[in-house]
Amino acid sequence: MAKVAGSVGALDGGQWDALAGSDNPFMSYDFLTIMEESGSVGPGTGWQSAPIVIESGDGELLAAMPSYLKGNSRGEFVFDNAWADAYQRAGGQYYPKVQIAAPHTPATGPRLLYSDEKYAVALLRAAEQLCAGNGFSSAHATFIEPDQLPLFEHAGWMLRSDIQFHWYNRDYQSFDGFLAALASRKRKAVRKERAAAQDGVDIVHLSGAQITEAHWDAFWEFYQDTGARKWGQPYLTREAFTLFGERMGDRVLLILALEEGEPIAGALNFVGGTALYGRYWGCSREKRFLHFELCYYQAIDAAIERGLERVEAGAQGGHKLTRGYEPCKTWSAHWIADPGFRDAVSDFLEREREGIDVDQMYLGERTPFKKDGSGKP
After folding, report:
1. pLDDT at 318
2. How much is the pLDDT for 140?
3. d(CA 87, CA 89)
4. Are 69 and 98 in contact (CB under 8 A)?
5. Half-sphere exposure at residue 159, Cβ-oriented, CA atoms within 13 angstroms
């Protein structure tokens, strides 16, 4: 029987990670408990931790789902504001809702964690019952690993797609090897951008014990500035960064640009088993092309060096396309309690899906790779 636990931190970390696996850092016990302990989820954030779990008779964790009660739609990156407005105009109350996700993280990963696939539907039915029993409007799972989509579809959840831009490692041995796959004009543009961005600065890659509190202090200033401009206020607290360093240091890659030894910009990445995930960026001084250099080109360098399959550079950003990042579908799944509202959302998703397919085809034809067959396959 599935139940709702008070927090991820109240569960056994070893058992959670045995279900989550080691590939995706954002489903790890460390990441999710850092979100809780740092106050990045919890009172005042719109995120109340409510993981759904299935245990054996002796308390062993058999399946789990990182779920949250949401009082708003901040930090989700799959935009349902129009749904909320429509539902409330019709006299309904959209919030609270149930969100199955890695908080504040638009990165693809598993959302159903289990020792046996037979538990998947039970987890989803428990989310539905949580909504029905408390009068919540809906449940949503975002940035779902494609292999798990059939499980949501089989349970009757509606699927929604969107587009991100990911870089794919086609067995490149160096950045120059990647550049060789680009059309000549695009190759020259990238080299020009990199030269301009690197002029007068030193760029360092830091992980584990190399990252000091002084580095985090500098990055916190960058992050606050970016967060204030993009979201009104940052999602994460300062303590979260210290805890990332303490508990996940080997899975963190902090890239800093130094001018006369002082950090002027930085990009924070997380390292997975097959992917590098770009998460946060900021600067104290504007420098032309430095954003592209730290967030995109240096990430490619790091992925090639580590033999990783791809770089996920976060939500949105059509400017990534000309820099070798390709359009890739991302997926979410949705359960709506009210039958009439569910039908309306289903109709909307069908129309939206057609537009997403057209957009992906259009964007795919405009990548910077050679068109003679010697670049992108």
Report:
1. 79
2. 98
3. 5
4. yes
5. 18
Sign of CA dihedral 125, 20, 313, 174: negative
Q: Return the closest-CA partner of residue 349 out of 82, 65, 102.
A: 82
- Name the E strands within the chain: 2-4, 47-49, 52-55, 61-65, 67-70, 97-100, 113-114, 138-142, 158-168, 202-206, 252-259, 262-271, 275-283, 310-312, 326-336
Chain centre distance of CA 215: 23
SS in 3 state form for 225-289?
Answer: HHHHHHHCCCCCCHHHHHHHHHHHHHHEEEEEEEECCEEEEEEEEEECCCEEEEEEEEECCCCCC
Segments in the chain below pLDDT 70: 227-232, 372-377
Quote the DSSP letter at residue 365: T
Q: Could you check whether the bond before residue 377 is cis, i.e. omega within 30 degrees of 0?
A: no
Kind and range of the H or E element at 20? helix 13-20
| CA-based nearest residue to 299, from 336, 325, 317, 331 | 325
**CA pair distance 198, 209, nearest whole angstrom:** 25
pLDDT of residue 315: 82
Q: Which residue has the tokens 């407005």?
A: 85
